[in-house]
Amino acid sequence: MNCAHSALRSSSTDARRAAAAAAAAAAAAAAVTFSYPTRPGDAALSGLSLRVPGGARVALVGPSGGGKSTVLRMIGRLYDPQGGAVAIGGRDLRSFGSKELAGTVGYVPQDPELLPLSVADNISYGLRKGQAARADVERAAAQAGADGFIRALPRGYDTAVGEGSVALSGGQRQRVGIARALVRRPRVLLLDEPTSALDGASEAEVQRTLERLDRACTVVTVAHRLATIRGADLIAVVAGGRVVESGTHSALLAQGGVYAGMVGRGGSGGGGGGAAQPLPLDAEAAQSVYEQQL
Ligand SMILES: Nc1ncnc2c1ncn2[C@@H]1O[C@H](COP(=O)(O)OP(=O)(O)O)[C@@H](O)[C@H]1O
Ligand SMILES: [Mg+2]
């Protein structure tokens, strides 16, 4: 079971299989410390711990520079931590082979880079020839909400994109990036949501995409929009290189801490409305809310 695969389950065997799949899709960071190689003196993460249940939808929120993108890069093993450990399915990521890792976790950066290739080749990039048939590529694109705009391109899936070719919008590039991750059928999908690159329509598409993914698939999103955040199973507020609060939307509002301050309801318990409004989570305002609460 994985992100790109949805099926009905009824028998107890299937239920057991689902439980095993969920366990295999759980992710955890334990007391992770990390500095980027270019800035060895600055801790990007300083003792960050996070437990992500298999199949959960997790939103990472918090002030700009707090460490959200770095957490995704750790779980995607773009870097190894200097202290602590990151695990998927209870196994330290350092024990994964590169092929196994690529089939386990899919990482979609904030602004995915396209190569000067066809859209189809961009989606299947990195896979061996024959590993992803055109039908697999198209299915992944459909799941990523990208099939419609790709078909409308001059040569459909064979249209060359990237520098010097057909230019895609930020939202379209991100959906191609999601398709590129999904075609590998990962158990854990990591998505660094752009703050401004997505217009309302593409954002709604990405949102629907995430909602349609199989529940056995774990999704960790750096999220900026209340619409994405409030429905998450778990919201983790990342600031100063740590998780400073975590819980559901309503629990965090009730707590009246950093998250409540960012939502701007001051722990009044929330209420309806405002679902489409972006949170000022990457604004200086969020930083000052955090600093006030230290
Ligand atoms: N590629 C990088 N090289 C060096 N430092 C980085 C890099 N990316 C992020 N940082 C630094 O790491 C810290 C955490 O950043 P980041 O994870 O990008 O935060 P967020 O995604 O919450 O805005 C910040 O101090 C940031 O400047
Ligand atoms: Mg970021």
Automatic annotation (TrEMBL):
Subcellular location: Membrane
Any one Pfam family match given in the protein's UniProt record, by short name: ABC_tran
Top-rank taxon, per record: Eukaryota
Domain ABC transporter: 27-265
Topological relation to the membrane, as annotated: Multi-pass membrane protein
Keywords for the protein's UniProt record, in alphabetical order: ATP-binding, Hydrolase, Membrane, Nucleotide-binding, Transmembrane, Transmembrane helix, Transport
UniProt-recorded Gene Ontology molecular function terms: ATP binding; ATP hydrolysis activity; ATPase-coupled transmembrane transporter activity
Cellular component annotations (GO), alphabetically ordered: cytoplasm; membrane
Main location class: membrane
Family statement: Belongs to the ABC transporter superfamily. ABCB family. Heavy Metal importer (TC 3.A.1.210) subfamily.
Record's protein name: P-loop containing nucleoside triphosphate hydrolase protein
Natural source organism: Tribonema minus
